[in-house]
C-alpha cells in the first residue's frame, strides 16, 4: 500500500509509545528530517523532559510550528480494537494513541516545511519548531522552559501555529485564536468532628459550606465578550467524612476551577470567592494555582493566512474560537507572538480508539504549507 508522505511519517511517530513525559525518540525522528533541509537542531532537556528547538534561518520574521510528542495513557488495552501503539487503518480512519492529539499534525508540519523549503529555498525570515514531551503532564519542564531560554538570549517569534486538534466537524472548520485562563483552587473548610447523634457538640463543615458553595455555583462572574464565553466555575471534587455513617466530619475539601475570560482577572476572581466565603463565616484555608492566563490573537497576518489557506484547500469558511481547555499556546502568547491553533478533528482525543480521518492528513500539510507561503515566501 502506498502511503502519502504525511501518513508515512504519522505512522512512524505513532509507533513510539511516548506517554508523558517520555518522548521515545519522536523528536529525533522529526529532527533528522528537519536537519536535512537546513534546520539547526537544538535539544533542550529539563529534568525528565525532552524538548526540541529547531530553526532554519537567522533573521526575522520568525514563524514557529509548536506542538507536543507526548500522549496521555491508553487506558485499558483490552478496550481498544487494536494496539494503540501499532497504528492501523480501518475504513479510512487511522487508529492509535496520539493520532488526533497530535502526532499527525506534527507529521504535517514537517512535510509542509520540506515542501516549502524545496520550493522556496531562499525564503525570508526563519522557520522554527518548538516541540515538547511535557504538554499532557504538569507542563513544568516543557514549552515554558524553552520560552524562558529563548527570551534569555533575545530570540523571539512573530507567529506561532500550534497543531492542537482544533477542528470539530470537518478539517479547518474551527481554529483557536485564543484560550481562556485557568485558575484552580483547593478549599478546606474546618469544622469539628463528632457523633451524628450529638450535633450540638460538633460543627459539620458540609452544612456550614453548603450555602457558600451554592452561591459560588450560582454567581455570574462576567458575561464574556466578542471572543470569549462567560467565565465558568466548576466544582470537580468534594471530600469529607471518614466513611462511617455515625461520624460528623471535621473537615471538607473542595476542589474547583475557573475557566475565565479577559473580562476578569485571576485576582478579581480570588477576591470575589473570599468575599463569599467570609460572608458565610466559614473557617477555611484555600490554596490557589494559576494554570494559565487567557490570551487572544486578534485578526491579523496569521489569522488571515490561516483562513485563506483553509478556504483554498478545503473550501471551508473557518470560524475563530476560544473554547476548550488550555494549551501550550498560553506560554507562547505572552512573548508577543501571534498564536493560532489549527489541527485535525478533536472528537476522539484522549479516548479509547482515538483516530483521525486519513483523508485529512495531506490537506492539513497543504494548509500548513500555504500558510508558510503566505507569510515567508519571497
From TrEMBL:
The active site is at 70, 135 (proton acceptor). Residues 177-284 form the Peptidase M20 dimerisation domain. Its cofactor is Zn(2+); Co(2+). Pathway: Amino-acid biosynthesis; L-lysine biosynthesis via DAP pathway; LL-2,6-diaminopimelate from (S)-tetrahydrodipicolinate (succinylase route): step 3/3. The keyword Amino-acid biosynthesis applies. Its EC number is 3.5.1.18. Keywords: Amino-acid biosynthesis, Cobalt, Diaminopimelate biosynthesis, Hydrolase, Lysine biosynthesis, Metal-binding, Zinc. It catalyses: N-succinyl-(2S,6S)-2,6-diaminopimelate + H2O = (2S,6S)-2,6-diaminopimelate + succinate. One of its GO terms (biological process) is diaminopimelate biosynthetic process. Pfam families: M20_dimer, Peptidase_M20. CDD domains: M20_DapE_proteobac. Zn(2+) 1 binds at residues 68, 101, 164. Catalyzes the hydrolysis of N-succinyl-L,L-diaminopimelic acid (SDAP), forming succinate and LL-2,6-diaminopimelate (DAP), an intermediate involved in the bacterial biosynthesis of lysine and meso-diaminopimelic acid, an essential component of bacterial cell walls. Homodimer. This is Succinyl-diaminopimelate desuccinylase. It comes from Acinetobacter tjernbergiae DSM 14971 = CIP 107465. The lineage of its organism: Bacteria, Pseudomonadati, Pseudomonadota, Gammaproteobacteria, Moraxellales. The gene is dapE.
Amino acid at each position: 500500500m502506498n502511503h502519502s508522505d504525511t501518513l508515512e511519517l504519522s505512522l512512524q511517530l505513532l509507533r513510539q509509545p511516548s506517554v508523558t513525559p517520555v518522548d521515545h525518540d519522536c523528536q529525533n525522528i522529526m529532527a533528522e528530517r528537519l536537519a536535512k533541509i537546513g534546520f539547526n537542531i537544538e535539544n533542550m532537556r529539563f529534568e525528565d523532559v525532552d524538548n526540541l528547538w529547531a530553526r532554519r534561518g537567522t533573521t526575522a520574521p520568525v514563524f514557529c510550528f509548536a506542538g507536543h510528542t507526548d500522549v496521555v495513557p491508553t487506558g485499558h488495552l483490552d478496550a481498544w480494537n487494536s494496539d494503540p501503539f501499532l497504528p492501523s487503518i480501518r475504513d479510512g480512519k487511522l487508529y492509535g494513541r496520539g493520532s488526533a492529539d497530535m502526532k499527525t499534525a506534527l507529521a504535517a508540519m514537517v512535510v509542509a516545511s520540506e515542501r516549502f523549503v524545496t520550493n522556496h529555498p531562499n525564503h525570508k525570515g526563519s522557520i522554527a519548531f518548538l516541540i515538547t514531551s511535557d504538554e499532557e503532564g504538569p507542563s513544568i519542564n516543557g514549552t515554558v522552559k524553552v520560552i524562558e531560554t529563548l527570551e534569555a538570549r533575545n530570540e523571539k517569534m512573530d507567529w506561532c501555529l500550534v497543531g492542537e486538534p482544533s477542528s470539530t466537524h470537518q478539517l479547518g472548520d474551527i481554529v483557536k485564536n485564543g484560550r481562556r485562563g485557568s485558575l484552580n483552587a483547593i478549599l478546606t473548610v474546618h469544622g469539628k468532628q463528632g457523633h451524628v447523634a450529638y450535633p450540638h457538640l460538633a460543627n459539620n463543615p458540609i452544612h456550614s459550606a453548603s450555602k457558600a458553595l451554592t452561591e459560588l455555583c450560582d454567581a455570574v462572574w462576567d458575561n464574556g465578550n466578542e471572543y470569549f464565553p462567560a467565565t465558568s466555575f466548576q466544582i470537580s471534587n468534594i471530600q469529607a467524612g471518614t466513611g462511617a455513617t455515625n461520624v460528623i466530619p471535621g473537615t471538607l475539601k473542595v476542589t474547583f476551577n475557573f475557566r475565565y475570560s479577559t473580562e476578569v482577572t485571576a485576582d478579581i476572581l480570588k477576591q470575589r470567592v473570599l468575599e463569599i466565603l467570609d460572608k458565610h463565616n466559614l473557617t477555611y484555608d484555600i490554596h490557589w494555582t494559576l494554570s494559565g492566563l487567557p490570551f487572544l490573537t486578534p485578526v491579523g497576518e496569521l489569522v488571515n493566512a490561516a483562513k485563506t489557506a483553509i478556504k483554498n484547500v478545503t473550501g471551508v469558511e473557518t470560524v475563530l474560537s476560544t473554547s476548550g481547555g488550555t494549551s501550550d499556546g498560553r506560554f507562547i502568547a505572552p512573548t508577543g507572538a501571534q498564536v493560532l491553533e489549527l489541527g485535525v478533528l478533536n472528537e476522539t482525543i484522549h479516548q479509547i480508539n482515538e483516530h483521525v480521518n486519513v483523508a485529512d492528513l495531506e490537506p492539513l500539510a497543504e494548509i500548513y504549507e500555504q500558510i508558510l507561503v503566505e507569510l515567508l515566501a519571497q
